[in-house]
């Protein structure tokens, strides 16, 4: 499924093969935002609408938690 990727390769970027793990590592290092809309209709009448917005990123000990100091439990 994977092939070595050379840095000075003359082949186009679209034809390079990258392992799925490497791709996920690159995406999660910077963060990924997923958005989407789902609408269920019958006879041009909207019955259900679902909006999805999600931020996925890697976790690091160097970045402080937004919920308070580590180790403290919530009441």
UniProtKB/TrEMBL annotation:
Keywords: Gas vesicle
Keyword field contains Transcription: no
Signal peptide extent: none
UniProt-listed PANTHER family: GAS VESICLE PROTEIN A1, GAS VESICLE STRUCTURAL PROTEIN 2-RELATED
UniProt-recorded name of the protein: Gas vesicle protein
UniProt cross-references to Pfam families, sorted A to Z: Gas_vesicle
Cell compartments where the protein resides: Gas vesicle
Principal cellular location given in the protein's record: other
Family membership noted in the UniProt record: Belongs to the gas vesicle GvpA family.
